[in-house]
Q: What sequence folds into this?
């Protein structure tokens, strides 16, 4: 993914390397989840409910299409950003 490519170019301290590795892992997990749910998300008639399950953090209907992985990715990128400052 683009995020993984950009993270691969970063160098830094051991602590930063750990944060980069965690962010890469989260990015791959999110991408995999979206690919695995392509049958429901990649169709022209995708339902609002399924789309929300993929990207909307505040969705009460569920987080089984990628939101959980997106939250982890967001958190790892935030942690990496703080460590890089």
A:
């Amino acid at each position: 993914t683009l995020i993984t490519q950009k993270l691969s170019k970063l160098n830094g301290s051991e602590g930063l390397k750990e944060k980069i590795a965690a962010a890469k892992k989260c990015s791959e997990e999110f991408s995999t989840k979206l690919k695995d749910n392509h049958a429901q998300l990649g169709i022209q008639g995708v339902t609002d409910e399924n789309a929300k399950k993929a990207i909307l953090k505040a969705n009460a209907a569920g987080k089984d299409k990628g939101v959980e992985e997106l939250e982890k990715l967001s958190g790892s990128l935030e942690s990496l950003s703080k460590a890089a400052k």
